[in-house]
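User: Please predict structures.

Assistant: First:
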Amino acid sequence: MYSLDLNPFNLIIIASVFIGLCFACLLIFAKRINQKANRFLGLLSLVIVFWNIWVLSLDLDLFRYLPKFYLIPVNFSLALGPLLFFYVKKMTEPEWQFSKTTFLHLVPLAFELIVHLILCKEALGKNILATDTNTFYTLIPIVQLFAIISILAYAFVSTKKLRQYHSWLKANYSNDDKYNLRWLTRLIFIFGILWFMMVPYSLIDYFVFNFNLGIKDYYPIYILLSLITIWISIEAFLKPEIVFLEKSARIQTVESVKPAELSKEIVEQAHSLKLDIERNLYYLDSELSLKSLAESLDMHPNTLSKVINEGICKSFSEFINEYRVKAVIEKLNDPAYSQITLLGISFECGFNSKTTFNRVFKNITGKTPFAYKKSVEIYN
């Protein structure tokens, strides 16, 4: 008679299956603004759920009591990397559409499914367990190695894509905190590190133990991977959705050039731009973007970007936020504003986030807003 030999580790994995399944369904089916991107992440969570079911089937020895269970394909590890990249791609480029060429990213998954079919054919032909076949000991390690390489490669490409996205934000939005995906960058980095840790595990298992290490030996990695995947899903679902107020083509960030290389026209435009900003107080608009400012100045966004990057040697956000910080400092030194909170003053000066305000203020002045306010009160 079969009895479940449960322990704290597989109980954690069982819990992760149910939690992961819940958030996978929410991400796939919940109608939200970023739903198209969320579906890719939901599928990624679903792949991890199926993978955990496979881990549990090995751990609880279900193959001996349900010998045909292996006929069900539940391992799609070569889909993890592409799904992660598709999610990042859709989040950073909302206009991106899934095309026929995109399916090329999923070609390695076909190899994994072919291996599964070969394994099933051998197990059925010899009437043995799937885990006892030559295919399992020969090809599964190769699939496992390909999966690790694939995930690490896609994690690297996804991180690079996020860096480009944040550079674009800095060049086009003065307040970018509500659009940033730094939380995703951190989690992908952790996700990649955990998969990298699979390399020594797999090499030791294959070359030292002849691929005979049990599931229990992989418990730490499996549990951590399950937890980080659930973490990414929860963060993605609970974070405020990214909604750009305007749809525009991506503006390429222009590299700074030396002052000696600047044309007279750029210098004059930069000087005129500063006068316009100071006279019209455009920086007080918390939703100011490169496109909206260009429209106000009757300039093309590319021209404005070039003037700011080359003529002032700053990014758009740096340029605008310097005016905002200067306005905050003026108010902190004005007794008429002594009863207004720091956050209230920051909002009056064009900031729309406490986090952005604190970060920008310290980067420019070298002090936190609170420390600066205290120093002003002491001297006054």
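Second:
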Amino acid sequence: MNKWIEINIGQIQNNVKAIKKILKKETKFMAVVKADAYGHGAIKVSNIALRNGADLLGVLTVDEAIILRKAGIKADIVILVPSLSDEIDTIKQYHIIPTVDSFDFLKSLNKKITGNKKYPCYLDIDFGLKRWGINPNDFQNFFKKASTLKNIKILAISTHINYVPPKNMTEAEEKLSQFKKLGEFAKTLFPDIKLHAANSSILCDFPHWQLDMVRVGNLMYGLYPSKIYFEKTKGAPIKGIKRPWKFYSKIISIKTASKGESLGYSSEYIAVKRMKIATIATGYSDGLTMEPTDKSIKLSSGFSYWAIINGRKAPFIGKSGICHTLLDISNIPNVKVGDKVLLTVRRTGASLRIPKIYTNNKV
């Protein structure tokens, strides 16, 4: 095996517990496991999260929810993206909670529900992303109409504000306040409705906006979405939060190049010095040229990628190929064929073909 992903499930467990500890006692915890739990494995992560403090799960699509149901997961599963009317039968079959921003969808769902039990759903309000959600100016009328549908039960109201740390913190506070006011209006009719606006970045930077529920993805996977938290806490991370995911490849060849020698496709790279070059059998088909989460590594000409070998940086040479990449190991001693190489790859961009190895190391 010349490339693989290692995932420490013990660290995921610790991350979930650490998040639970910073929540208010009354705040519900939605574990976001969309995109195969950000590449960590949705079934495994869902079970770990639910055993260690999460109350329910959030996914992106009906298909993602079905995978979890077929795996035997009984907890509430919320689709965070508005569903389509032709998905209603499947949503009912697998007891999935839809997020809604269309009254036509609600009417269609209402017609298909029989019996005395109302079907649960969430409503979403758009506060600037413009991807989906009810216009805030229309929300009160929308909610009043929705509350008249006899077979529908609105469990929660959500929003995902267009907050980019640290660019628009004042605007974020204002929008969160506006969201709460709309939520308070809804609670005058249905006091048990849950409000949730806090994803990982809001939870870190605006912990006073936990409201009734938070939905956390990035932090569960050891990813801090902004530097504001560290500035406020003088560099102290949330106790227990670390990254459980690592992408490895192995060196399959080592060669040398003389100063001035051209190499790579179309001789696109000229060695500026005598170089020692290692090849790994990992390239862009594996997700290697997807922009990494680490923003210090950029995806464009003029910026560099690198791997880590024996704790030291090995810069990429030229562009990654479909299934190989060249590394400059000139300044790293004692490197040999078969050595392990740590790569920075965006977790959701890594190919599903890459084997996952689960460990449970003490952390």
